[in-house]
Prior knowledge:
The complex is a heterotrimer of chains A (about 240), B (about 600) and C (about 280).
Chain A: E1 9-18, E2 21-31, E3 36-40, H1 47-54, E4 62-67, E5 70-71, H2 77-82, E6 85-88, H3 100-107, H4 114-127, H5 129-132, H6 144-156, E7 162-166, H7 174-189, E8 193-198, H8 201-207, E9 210-215, E10 218-224, H9 225-230, H10 233-239
Parallel strand pairs in A: 3-8, 3-9, 6-7, 7-8
Antiparallel strand pairs in A: 1-2, 1-4, 4-5, 9-10
Chain B: H1 6-37, H2 44-62, H3 66-89, H4 98-119, E1 135-137, E2 140-142, H5 144-166, H6 168-178, H7 180-185, H8 190-216, H9 223-238, H10 243-264, H11 269-283, H12 315-327, H13 334-359, H14 368-383, H15 389-408, H16 417-436, H17 438-441, E3 447-448, E4 454-455, E5 458-459, H18 463-485, H19 488-498, H20 500-505, H21 510-536, E6 538-539, H22 546-559, H23 564-580, H24 588-602
Antiparallel strand pairs in B: 1-2, 3-6, 4-5
Chain C: E1 5-14, E2 17-27, E3 32-36, H1 43-50, E4 58-63, E5 66-67, H2 73-79, E6 81-83, H3 96-103, H4 118-129, H5 132-149, H6 169-182, E7 187-191, H7 199-214, E8 218-222, H8 226-232, E9 235-240, E10 243-248, H9 250-254, H10 257-264
Parallel strand pairs in C: 3-8, 3-9, 6-7, 7-8
Antiparallel strand pairs in C: 1-2, 1-4, 4-5, 9-10
Amino acid sequence: MSDxxxxxxxxxxxNSFYGPVQVHFxxxxxxxxxxxxxxxxxxxxxxxxxxxxxxxxxxxxxGTVFFEGQxxxxxxxxxxxxxxxxxVPEARRLFGQMTVRENLLMGAYTRSDKPxxxxxxxxxxxxxxxxxxxxxxxxxxxxxxxxQMLAMARALMGRPKLICMDEPTMGLSPLFVDRVLELIQAIxxxxxxxxxxxxxxxxxxxxxxxxxxxxxxxxxxxxxxxELLRDPRIRDAYLGGAAAA
Amino acid sequence: MNMxxxxxxxxxxxxxxxxxxxxxxxxxxxxxxxxxxNLVNFAHGSVYVVGAYVGWAAITYLGTPLPVTxxxxxxxxxxxxxxxxxxxxxxxxxxxxxxxxLATIGIALVLDQVVQLIFSPDPRAVxxxxxxxxxxxxxxxxxxxxxxxxxxxxxxxxxxxxFLRFTKLGWAVRATAQDSDAAQQMGVDINKVNMAVFxxxxxxxxxxxxxxxxxxxxxxxxxxxEATLKGIVALIIGGLGNVPGAIGGxxxxxxxxxxxxxxxxxxxxxxxxxxxxIAMLLWRPNGLFSGRSxxxxxxxxxxxxxxxxxxxxxxxxxAGLIVAAxxxxxxxxxxxxxxxxxxxxxxxxxxxxxxxxxxxxxxxxGHAALLAIGGYTSGLLAMDAGWPVAVTIPIAGIVTAGxxxxxxxxxxxxxxxxxxxxxxxxxxxxxxxxxxxxxxxHGAIGLGGIPPLEVFGYDLGSVEGTYWLCLxxxxxxxxxxxxxxxxxxxxxWRAIRDDSVAARSYGVSGNRYKALAFGFGGFGAGISGxxxxxxxxxxxxxxFNATLSVLALTMVILGGLGNVMGAVLGATLxxxxxxxxxxxAEYRILIYGLVLLLLIRFRPQGLMGTV
Amino acid sequence: xxxxxxxxxxxxxxxxxxxxxxxxxxxxEGELLSIIGPNGxxxxxxxxxxxxxxxxxxxxxxxxxxxxxxxxxxxxARLGMARTFQHGRVFANLSVLDNVLVGAHTRLRAVxxxxxxxxxxxxxxxxxxxxxxxxxxxxxxxxxxxxxLTLFGDRLLPRIDNPAFxxxxxxxxxxxxxxxxxxxxxxxxxxxxxxxxxxxxxxxMQEVVHDLKRSGLTILLIEHKLEMVMRLSDRVxxxxxxxxxxxxxxxxxxxxxxxxEAYLGHRETGAAAPAREDVS
Lengths: 245, 611, 280
């Protein structure tokens, strides 16, 4: 499929706009297979737009997204999903009126191999035992932490090679934050590559292999996670120390 | 009021449930479509008519038995539904939210006209395919057709439930309705879902049309509009996008109508439906079955203002056009002049609508009702009170301004689609009140022998006189409107349209300025209606119908929403051009529908640009 | 002297989420108070509660010695409260000048006689006839609007007749602030005035806000660029998860560990990373 040297996901010189506002300026980054890579940044730094660009929900004005060495240019979101990308959207975006089980099966929407889907359902429920007790409950009635777990489980049901997670810890209580991070690591250990966008830098870097820091559409900083964690510049990038006089 | 006996009550109840079932098959489709596409499909009733005629043709020409007839209807209407999605919805992805709604209005005009051209406007009788016995129950009776309709209604609901609950595509439909972005991220192809939903909804609508044809033993192309409206009323009662709610709303509507007829008579049926609609919009816009009483926040906003730089005509050119128009009677061609009069009268209506729909962004679908109010006011004052026409026409303008504003005032807090639905309903109510308030309006007979135009002894009844009078009034109204637009009112109106929340935060009260716009617009439209009444000498409650409202909207979109010169140009073009190709007279409404569709798709800013 | 704005115990819930939880603040005349906090902390919701766009579930707001809890925004505008919006809500199809003039709407006197019922009709008539007093008032407002636009140097003046949709994002934000100033507000609420601006533009905006403060205007500011907040604010309130987690002078707040934690995460940056396995 892909060259050994080729990254699983690569963004190449992306320039994107939101209305008249330029959000990304020549944004380039890559995600190696098997890793957890995080994209950090404060408010309005362009994190969520990066996610939308990868998933085909928003088209860049120039630049290319490569997945397994193939350009995704011109593909619709469902086509991109079928290539093997799963999504855990910002604010989870579950189907609140549908049951937990229906949400899980929606995750497997692109697949038609029923026995294998049933197998995966079992595997996912083993990973997220809380969901098993609630299979018939409406997703919208669960707590925020449980919803986040369902969103991750739903993404897994598509057997993706890569899962894109948009702020998976946002709005969760500290207890659940830790649980979610553990689960992300557990998913990664099963061989799924994770690309996550996070505001919460120390948490994300705590589990990631590699990190990028996005500042008003530019990559301000990048490096292996443990080096970034110790880098004092990351604090400036967030608190605006470097910006303004 | 006369109280029917107990047996009759039973019959009215059965009738209400049967009608409710028929409405349910319409409303469920509308709810599904609204769910996945956030669109109120105004072409829904047209598909219902297609269903009725396909059924009629199958039985009449092919002699099909009932199951085969239904199959034919399902297939043809399903395909029509797919076509509506491809034409009216998919190409408009990314344009303003009201655009697909307007597109379905255009499609409705086209479909209705095609049916009329193929099958003629005359009513047809649908051969009965069920036996004619009736079972007496508790003083009333119930027949096989009642049972059949009830059975098909139940069966459809069951099939739909199974589809939504147990099939993969059904899940995709529900997921898309709840969160289409998230559904796409699961790999759902939204286009495919929309297509499936339109096909299913249209098939149900078609079956509904067939059943109605059998129930009343009569079908005609004109029944589409009422079907759309009834479906929408049931949909609003149940809550937009709520499928089980739509069934409940339909039964409530059917029973309300049936009991209303029992108590007050047939001509009150629709009045009940539309009063129910307005009451729902005002007090429970989310439907009877929702806990919330406030409007849902976002998806209903958005006007149809394309960003453009308006084309400016220099003042000397405008003056030249006015002079040229004033000299038109010298051609001494009464036929051309009559077209001129019509263009000018429509021009006044378009001026009024372009202010309301363009400048203030309230897409009104009931504007013809203002003509009716003006026409009846002036006509009645001249006929029954014997006042001189020169006095009754301005009074008609003032009365229309006041009454029109008062009627729409409660709807000012609505936005987007709700405004369109509410104004449509209010327009129908005006027409029905005219029909039923015989003591004042002469009821169904209409106003005959309205005195001709004359001003202080000068007879303007001739076509030249009418023309010059209309020209003077139109020019004055247009200049006045331009003057208001250049004052603080113009920017306040447009601020409300562009962002009503920000406008309110700066003290620009939505109610006050919408009222001023409807008031000024109502004045012009009332005068137009009054002159029309005097020059026709006969009007009734159907003279100013909903098609006219849609035509006026097409005119102002053609000219460029909010654009004063554009409104006059749009009116002139749409009135004069079909006359220029006289061979096309039969296709007139069809052309309007196509023009509307093409504009929405390719030139939303119109010819002259939006202002 | 009593505070110009007194907010007491505001609560707002959306569904099960408490967006603002027991928020209180006082703002004295001439003061600049900043509210900072990460995304989703409830800052904008708090603004919406104060400016009448959403009714609070509990608590009260007093402005200019009047109870304005849950009042309509039109009244707050008349009392002298002006606000800008997080994502720059200009009137897209109006020219720059008209946008600013809408801001001056509450200052229209001659053309809007304060007579109940008849007032609107007179307003329509006066707008059409335009007697000298109306013309003079409009002219004065136009001059004032142009004067306000000069605050932004030559950023907006050359584009005064252009429709707002044709402006750059930064210019739209400037138009919004000009529109707010045209109200001649007693209290100005600024919601992230520099969002989406580059460094030069941010510095420029900082100067504008600084000048407004020096001219004596009372300002409530939501801002993310802490450098700007530190430089301009008299006091700072820090919000996280709907609640106030710190309040004080800019320098105190900056070194408050709770603040750094709110921004960077629940563990201190630089601490040892939790154990993890390397995949290579």
